[in-house]
Amino acid sequence: MGLSKASCNVFLLQLFIVVCLVFQCFDVKVHADLNATLTVDASGASGRQIPETLFGIFFEEINHAGAGGLWAELVSNRGFEAGGPNIPSNIDPWSIIGSETSINVETDRTSCFERNKVALRLEVLCDSTGNNICPADGVGVYNPGFWGMNIEQGKKYKVVFYARSTGPLNLSVSFTGSNSVGNLASTMIKGSASDFSNWTKVEALLVAKATNPNSRLQLTTTTKGVIWLDQVSAMPLDTYKGHGFRSDLFQMLVDMKPSFIRFPGGCFVEGDWLMNAFRWKAAVGPWEERPGHFGDVWKYWTDDGLGYFEFLQLAEDLDALPIWVFNNGVSHNDEVDTTAVLPFVQEALDGIEFARGDQTSKWGSIRASMGHPEPFNLKYVAVGNEDCGKKNYRGNYLKFYGAIRRAYPDIEIISNCDGSSTPLDHPADMYDYHIYTSANDMFSRATTFNRVTRSGPKAFVSEYAVTGKDAGQGSLLAALAEAAFLIGLEKNSDVVKMASYAPLFVNANDRRWNPDSIVFNSFQLYGTPSYWMQLFFSESNGATLLNSSLQATASNSLIASAITWQSSVDKKNYIRIKAVNFGATAVNLKISLNGLDPNSLQSSGSTKSVLTSTNVMDENSFSQPKKVVPIQSLVQSVGKDMNVIVAPHSFTLLDLLKESSNLKMPGSDSSTWSSI
Ligand code: AHR
């Protein structure tokens, strides 16, 4: 029995109404208990330029953000150094293929690389003939990468390793599924005994015949003898400009349009102990010669393929200013006395020379040898991370400050001490401000910088996030509170110069810190609501903040701001209104745009984007990566006075397209109209 045409139409109408209510087609007609008015001086006469630098990103090697993340290297522990310099050592995550009667695997210290002497020795006991026949697939070792390698059909992978052998070499190099099932790509490396009597570099290009996100790299043989292996690397060719950054994760960063990138930490820079802190000199030059290190705060080994050079390259590729955080002789548990800190100061000066020195300078020449003869645009350095309270911080800081200021007067130096409540007692160009807190507290901090002195060093809010139960693994609630905080920073961008969320990345297999902006595994990724929230601010850098005031009847859960910005794509000018409704009740927001010519806004081309969800604790996930993402719609009627329903628990953005030539520029004569 089918539905009649009439009942079908009624059903469709009902469905339409339900869909419309859910997606708020009828903005103005939806019931809202609360009223508010946002009055904006849209003339721009009282506007102020937001710093070009305001919103950027902070990359820390935490949660396998780099190793097993943005850095596309597929092999984990490629030099067999992760088990320490002593032998025998743990070769994890490498595993042996073959039984005790067919192969004996151990580490020794015969590598050709001076800074990382550990190599892998494979004594193959079986053979292709005789009475100890090797299994058909051979014996050897495999590396599962970082919780499985993502090998994709049609893509090319460059495998590089170093080998030595007592006899002829017959080594199969292959990508297979886990449990060795399925050959995705393979090649044979053959050579005579004399070819491999000394350490020899082998390079092979493998093209994948199939896709498997949980693959492994195998090195196997069926020939008796002894083989040594070292520095085994497998990189996809498909990385941004061949620079080694995993394409999909890199694109997520591009979409944020960050003005700067702070790196490489965080606590990663400090270490629990100084001996485990990141040291830039051990992370430049040929990758094979980098010793790697154990990051003892976040508890994992990095081969340091993503080193100081690569961070600078990443900044350049993102068109973002690099902000280098270096260790100032202070870790979580030990400190260098100020009287002995000069070698650390010299290390920082050398690092700046590496980034900026010309090709004839000692360290600039190493940068040039790595393929970047032109200097990197390093203009900001941070002396340590969260070390202000440490015994030697001020003393050490002053040594760094004096030396860097003398050698590089244009570099801006960032202190770890918070200058927002009391003025700094030492010279600095900026002070670092970190805030991890509950959603309510973060929301209330939208006004924190209203109360800060307007003179002196500016704030670098280099780490902010809602954490704890309000945030889960990245909730809408957290994103809303953070959005309010950022609106506050935007309004106070005369004293706040930079801001970045933390942490940026998490590999879902190693969640050391919750929540994070971008979640990934070997082949999937998604942005948390906080990631999408940040995109609402990506046009703010260099935009004009319009003077606005908000009058609300009974609600203090609303915060709003207005900017004008120019699209780099269509070169058109927009007024952008952002409003966070942190409460559970819809708000009828009346927007009055003063100082505009009549009809100076265009309905066509004006849009509304709303970040919300049915439950304020909703999160995205691999199975529902777009559960909480902005939904964009066209704005039907725009005008100098308009009403917008701001949904409960939402972050709403209105981009109102302006006719050109009708906005007065900040500081322009009040009777003059000019275009931006
Ligand atoms: O962002 C995570 C950590 O939080 C950073 O490493 C540290 O600076 C802060 O304590």
Q: What this model shows, in words?
A:
By secondary structure, this protein is an alpha+beta fold. Among the domains are: 30-52 and 542-658, Immunoglobulin-like (Sandwich), CATH 2.60.40.1180; 95-236, Jelly Rolls (Sandwich), CATH 2.60.120.260; 259-416, Alpha-Beta Barrel (TIM Barrel), CATH 3.20.20. The chain is built from ten helices and 35 strands. The strands form seven sheets. An eight-stranded parallel β-sheet has the order 3-15-18-19-20-21-22-23. A seven-stranded antiparallel β-sheet has the order 2-27-29-30-35-32-33. A hairpin with a 4-residue loop joins strand 25 (518-520) and strand 26 (525-527). Helix 5 (342-356) crosses helix 6 and helix 5 (342-356) packs parallel to helix 7 (393-407). The longest helix is centred in the N-terminal third of the chain and has 19 residues, at 5-23. Bound molecules: alpha-L-arabinofuranose.
Number of discrete helical segments? 10
Within the CATH hierarchy, at the fold level, what is the topology of the domain at 259-416? TIM Barrel
From the alpha-carbon coordinates, what is the Rg to the nearest angstrom? 29 Å
Tell me about the largest β-sheet: 8 strands, parallel
Signal peptide: 1-32
Keywords: Extracellular matrix, Glycoprotein, Hydrolase, Secreted, Signal
Family: Belongs to the glycosyl hydrolase 51 family.
EC number: 3.2.1.55
